[in-house]
Amino acid sequence: MSKFQGVKHQVAVRAFEKAGFWIARQSKHIIMTDGEHILTIPRANPINEYTMGSLIKGAGLSIEEFKKLL
User: 20 to 30 A Cα–Cα from 60, which one of 4, 21, 23, 44?
Assistant: First the structure.
């Protein structure tokens, strides 16, 4: 499992927006989509490293690609 720790949920949302995702809806979690992938981002600061790794993988990105978006 990929790991990427220490990212606040607001920073993750901005990075995924740069990758072409948009916010579909918000409640206790933020649901983002790009039309193909769906991400469920928890409102946690920071996001758990295993959760962040799953989000990056679920978006079809590598850790290096995600770091460039930060």
Answer: 44
